[in-house]
Amino acid sequence: MTDSFEPTIIGFTCNWCSYRAADLAGTARIKYPPNVRLIRLMCSGRIDPTFVFKALANGADGVMITGCHPGECHYIEQNYKALRRFQLMRRTLQGFGVEPGRIRLVWASAAEGARFASEVTAFVEEVRALGPLHWGKNGTVPAIAAPATIQKEEVPA
Amino acid sequence: MSDYILYPGCSMETGARAYYDSLKAISKPIGLNLKEIDDWNCCGATEYFGISKTPAYALIARNLALAAEEANGTRKLVAPCSACYLNLVKADHYMREQPKFGRQVNEALAAGNLSYKPGSLDIHHLLDVIIYDIGLDVVEKNVVRPLKGVRVAPYLGCMVPRPDYDHRWSDHDLPVELDMLLKTLGADVVDYPLKTECCGGHMPQISPATAFEMLRRLISVADEREADVMTTICPMCQLNIDGYQGEMNGFFGTNYHMPILFFTQLMGLAFGIEPKELGFGLELVSAKNVLDAIGVKTPPEAPTPPVPPRKPRKPEGLPMPTPLTNPQIETLKKEVTK
Amino acid sequence: MTEAVSISSTPISDPRQIEDQTLLKEVASRTAGVSNLEMCIQCGTCGGSCPSAVEMEHTPRRLFAMLRAGMREDALKSNTPWICVSCYHCVVRCPQNIHIPDVMYTLKTMAVDAKLVQDSTAPDFSQTFIDMVEEYGRSFEIGLASRHYLKHFPLRLTNMMPMGMGMLSKKRMNLTPTRIKNMKQLKAILKRAKELEAEQ
Amino acid sequence: MTENMIENTSSNDDQEKIGVYVCHCGTNIAGVVDVVQVAEWAAKYLKHRGVVIAREYKFMCSSLGQELIEKDIKELGLNRVIVAACSPHMHEKTFRTACANAGLNPFMCEMVSIREQVSWVHTDKVAATAKAKAMISGGVERVRHNVPLEPIVVPINPATLIVGGGIAGIQSALEIADAGFHVYLVEREPSIGGHMAQFDKTFPTLDCSACILTPKMFSAGSHPNITLLTYSEVEKVDGYVGNFTVTVRKKARKLDEEVCTGCGICQEKCPRKVIDDVFEAGLGYRKAIYTPFPQAVPNRPVLDVANCTYYEKGTCKACEIFCAPKAIRFDQQDEILTLQVGNIVLATGYQLFDARRITNYGYGRLTNVFTSLEIERLTNAAGPTNGNVVLRDGKTAPKTVGIIHCVGSRDKNFNNYCSAICCMQSLKFAHLIHERTGATIYNFYIDIRAASKDYDEFYQRVLEEGTLFVRGKVAEITDVPRMESEKGKLIIQVEDTLVGKQRRIPVDMVVLSAGLEARSDSKEVAKTFGISCSFNGWFIEKHPKLDPIATMTEGIFIAGCAQGPKDIPASVAQGAAAAARVLGRIEQKQMALEPVRASVIEEKCSGCRICNGLCPFNAITFHEDRMVTEINPALCQGCGTCVAACPAGAITGTGFSNEQIMAQIDGLLMLNVEPEPVTA
Fold this sequence. Notes:
The complex is a heterotetramer.
Chain A: E1 9-14, H1 18-27, E2 36-41, H2 49-57, E3 62-67, H3 78-96, E4 103-107, H4 113-130, H5 142-154
Parallel strand pairs in A: 1-2, 1-3, 3-4
Helix pairs in contact in A: 1-4
Chain B: E1 2-6, H1 17-27, E2 32-36, H2 53-70, E3 76-79, H3 82-97, H4 99-110, E4 122-125, H5 126-134, H6 136-142, E5 151-155, H7 177-184, E6 188-189, H8 203-206, H9 208-224, E7 229-232, H10 235-243, H11 245-252, E8 260-262, H12 263-270, H13 288-296, H14 327-336
Parallel strand pairs in B: 1-2, 1-3, 3-4, 5-6, 5-7, 7-8
Helix pairs in contact in B: 1-12, 2-3, 2-4, 3-4, 5-6, 7-14, 9-11
Chain D: H1 2-10, E1 18-23, H2 35-45, E2 51-57, H3 63-76, E3 80-85, H4 88-101, E4 109-113, H5 115-119, H6 125-144, E5 152-155, E6 160-163, H7 167-178, E7 183-186, E8 201-202, E9 207-208, H8 209-222, E10 226-229, E11 232-240, E12 243-250, H9 265-269, E13 273-276, E14 284-287, E15 289-290, E16 302-303, H10 309-313, H11 318-322, E17 335-341, E18 343-346, E19 350-352, E20 369-371, H12 372-379, E21 400-407, H13 422-437, E22 440-445, H14 455-464, E23 468-471, E24 476-478, E25 490-496, E26 501-507, E27 509-514, E28 516-518, H15 522-529, E29 556-558, H16 568-588, E30 590-593, E31 598-600, E32 620-623, E33 628-631, H17 641-645, E34 651-653, H18 658-668
Helix pairs in contact in D: 2-6, 3-4, 6-18, 7-8, 7-16, 12-13, 13-14
């Protein structure tokens, strides 16, 4: 079944490097599998572990976190914070009994479209190898759980 | 005090017996406890790589595996022979650099119920250990018969300061470690620019002409710079310069007489150990002149070696840039001038 | 390897000779560690640093260019790898961190496999040396020397005599080889290693 | 400002009316994504999420496309817009402006990049179309939580700080000053002029460096709009674009600049000779009290305390004794100045690669090996040898000279980049040394890079002059001869790669064309000014191609070699460009900042201070009295790190709020899509 399995992956990108890398991959017409859906943040430092766990809990099979290379952060050093949170998240996932390999941290500068594409390709393969992640009640049947989750989100935080 | 696993290498028991004898003689006073690997095998020198890759590395890896097994507590493996040292380091390094290759080598080892985890040993050359672990201050304490007035050309050869994967040496071309050691022994160190040039390796067996030319360069420069003796840290270098000097003289019609000793022999000498214990006399080009030089002299007041002329008070010409300060070298210098 | 020979079976002078695009990759993949061979910028630091370059038919740089050009036969015929003394000057100076001596080792192996070695002195020396090691687990100078010199430099033996005698009289050469205890183990390891080498 | 943002977030109960616009981009998108199907799908399956209209159109960015959106906003009363087209970096402004024109707050419009992220990178039409749908659904969920935002407007202080008095800094300063605005020009050394002042001739025109630089230095020194702060360093920078507060340390010159006449008697009488490592590149001497060179601006000496006999022994005072106007002040202390500026230009320049690091080239060990900067001084008529090119002995002229390119450049062991100027500089030396000495000149190069106006022509000229070119990176330089002809020479050992043979070339003098490096303290400087620098220490520009002058930090611009190796024309151009950018800002008098900011909801802030340490822009301040944290919206750059870190969820990031992102995740996972379409 894993052969036909197409993983769904949520990718977080930083507005200054990795999102532009994705743009560049596009303009350079570099092909990669369509399993990744990107969210644009201003900085990898913005990533709240909740985002990652929520994505996995609500049906994503993997999460890709991308940012500027160490020392080249648009906001000077925030990507280091992302790095620290990433380590933390891996450990937490292990605690949950989820393969830490389902999240991946990628540094990609605005000039590294090719790198971005190859990293996505590699990650998709890794997650495909891991198989689908049935996590949380909603797991693979999102439709049923859908209204609920949406409602929850609409309650003012 | 500090324990090390020793990989002697074939030549230490044959061609370089003087090296082994002198090493044994000096290791006690400087508190260097060496434990020889049981049933070690040849490292394959530079020959096996050219025949077949995997067997070459498996051959080396067997020694690493054995060493790692015996290495309870201590991780430090020390090799006195340059070629052996490099091969051991290289195997470890490439097995780390290319995990796939590492697995392959281990697969071969498995056939002998052995395995080696890359990076689990800390591999050093003997000189490195003496300088950076034992320390020149300890060496200095043992000097009872300074080699005053003996002009020594320090010669390291290739394979220890290069490729130097772990950046342990002060320089690739002109490292100062050996000079510092010799100064500590009270010797008069010759500024020898070819200290890491090649001795020809196995060329005498393959292309004599090439080898002899290389030897000529080394010996002639040592001779021009009025060295009484060369000293080395490598059995191969010693063998080539010592063993083939005669043939080389014949080849060029020269008559150089440039003895070459192992640095451990000079250490022992300065420590006041009997020359016989240090394997003196095993060299083909006799180093008797060195013994005479010290034998006759009494340590305290000896003619101080000619000091280089001071910079004139009034600067003439254009000033030279100040030498680059390398913290590693600086600490060494301090120790020596203690 | 057999197909390697067939590829380069047409003489180099033949303009129709097909460039062997697989050569560079093959050399790189057969070299221990990460060779960086493909990174060469042809600056010549290696050829400039080499203490024995004078004796070489091609400087290392030129040899690498030939590998790129897919000139398999010419490259493997070259005496360059056999003249390399593994002094590592080129390695530490190479601006692209190419493992030059290791590439040379690979080329030696490939040359022997492809039976393209011109002068057999060096390969024979290595082989004799290795035979001893595989036999005893230790090197055995006198056996090596006598065998090697008799074959390649019979005339040199007279000049060698003083040295040889010196070495013997000073017991710097053993008349009998030393053998390691667990030869069985070593042989097993090497056997497996050879199989693995052959597999790729 | 913080307040009304909160209001906006809370007062968000009006019914969402979302318009979805799917662009064909000709065939760029439509070629792979079934845009018609996507639009229909959105209209049908996202209806219950507030999508009232979904259209597809050939070119949404065309005026017709924009009108379509504007019309719908007016007629259907849309309050949210999703444009599924190219990357927001391409057309976000376009569509937000369109919305604004129709009276909708521009920040209620979001783009979904189905070109760069879908049609251009995927081939499988079905999968691509599916992904496009998912991304739109994500966009829809996100935009539901968008709130109207007002740009933050800050006033611009017309004064400008320029750091670094090299040619780039001088150019920048003059441009701004001439436009009638005030400039503070801060220089670390006693005089402005930078490296260019050390040079003799400039390539490829060979006009005299001093002749073209000195006038500029002079006008910078005498300009009514320029305050020159030499022998000074910036210590601290506070504030943000429009109003920076800069702290400058003016090091004590130990003399009263007002009283001093610059007559120079003090340096004439000073008994203490010191090797001049800075201006003379270690080749010449200066006194303990000195002006680095005759045309120095300002023409006021500094007293180098470290080397002054008086400060060592307590006697001497020769300078004071001979100073007619009595300007010497031994007790003078450093001054701390505080400047108020609106914009900052960093032109801190480069430093020369330390050639001693390449031991096989023997610089510092072999007497007649020189660096490029030393040769600049040797060839300079005002230099230590009055322009005579001689060996280290100070007399002998070389008969053969080897010039080595790429020293420390294009080498993974040192600097892996090309220093850009070395080729031309080496060609210049070849010409000058040949001209002065008639010596035979060798150039050792890997590649000749003469790619600029009239550069290759200069190469041709040097070839004509009989310079010998050897293609090969020099392996080593030694004084150990192998044959008679090499005795007493420096031997350059190299592979002549065009011949394919190793050569040993004996010469009298070796010139190392050392590369350019970022200043050793560039990383600290970057930190002080809140900008980032690359691994190699070069300051990072906002965009490598489209904005090499601005930095990621608003109000801070870079010029000259501080941004990367470049030659004089390029430095001047960049200096001028930076000035133009600053002037543009000043003319605006105020500027609007993207309202992507973090703000604290004080009621929720527990005062835990976790966020306090996270902000590299010092935008976060803690109020001890109220025990709450506040974020200065003008300082905040909107990275959102604090938002993510706040355990109480008390910090909201406008434009990238938790609600928006959480919702977008669900949208991307299609959790919002009804199994069956809700029929209207």
